[in-house]
Each structure stands twice: as structure tokens, then as C-alpha cells.
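Entry: PH domain-containing protein
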Amino acid sequence: MSAPPAAERPASFGARLRDLARRALLMELRVYESLWRAIARRPKLAAGSMGFRYHRPVLTALIVFLVLSAVEIPIIDMIVHRWVPVRIGFLILGIWGLTWMVGLLCAYLTRPHAVGAEGIRVREGLELDLLAPWREVAEIRAHRTSRDPSDPDRERGRVFDEDGSRVCAIRIGNETNLEIVFERPFEAHLPGLPPKGGPQPIDRLRFWADDPDGLLRAAGEAVDR
């Protein structure tokens, strides 16, 4: 029996540990970058590109977690205030957690999808950033999908087979509303290591935008230039 392709082989424990540490460091740095961009009002956009946000389906959940993180700090401090070393440790942990949640919210706001001369850049939060160059794009269209929590296939990852095509779905709140169809199999680089991360050949890319009609118009105008 032949060995599975490298992209389908699970990585070793050491490689996964190194990748996890690298990704954790990258996300930590992007938390502070996103905070700076929010304060400076400088979204991550190339010159001449138009940005389209995608935070609406998860905004309520992010705000709830942020409020809970803020409320938790004084409650825990009141419980452990007699044990000074423990109190300091919990205060540091609580402030870091709150900062992280604010940074994550800022990442959703300051790292939008981008439509420009180079193509469509699809993003999600702190990590994901995929560029689909115009030369690779056959079509971009409205295509709404919603993953039902009761669906037995709900555990399938971002990349899966559907109707003979390899699909990558960047879901926000379990939903997508746009789809890019590629001219030929396109290599998308996803966070993490194979088989779920790394370079993944795909035929279609689905994602969510809060203003899908505006993104479609901007894409049409960019292609016509």
C-alpha cells in the first residue's frame, strides 16, 4: 500500500507543538497590532483597496464574552484579596484575558476582507488571510449556506468535498453568503499543519461578508478596470 500524500499525513507531536507555539505568538502579536490599528483608525488595507467587514454574526457573542471577562476581574479580586501573591496573579491573568478579548474584537473590525487590484483577500479574526488573485478567479457569486448544529456532518473542517469539488468554507457564526469559484484547483494556505491546515488545493472558497452586495459590486468594478 502506498503512503498517503504529505498533505494528508498527520504531523509529529514535536512539529505540532512548535506550530502551536508559533501560532500562539503570532496571535498574541496581532492582538496588540489590532488594538493599535483600532486606536489609530488604520484598518489593514492596501492602498486603493476597499474593505468589507464580517463581524455581524459573532458581534453579540464577542461583546458578551468581553463583558463577562471585565466583570470577572473584580469578583475574583474580592474573593482572593487576602492572599496577595494569588491576588496579583489573578489580576495579571484577568487583565491579560480582557485585553485579549478586546484585541480579538478589534481584529474583526480592523482586518476586513479586501477587494483591490491584486484580487480578493478573505480574512477571519487574528489568523486567517487568504488572497485569491483575479487571474485564478472564474466567478464570485452570492451563495448562502448555514451549518445546522444538529447536522451529523457539523464536525467537518473548513475543507471538505461537495458535489465533486473541494470546498473551503470560512464560516462566521456557522454561515457563509459568498462563494469564489476558481479557474483551476487553487492552493489555499490555512493556519495549522496538514491534514486540516497548511496548503490545501480547493475549487471553491466560501466566506461571509456583512455587505455581500457591496463586495460583489466592488469585485466587478475591480475586474473591469
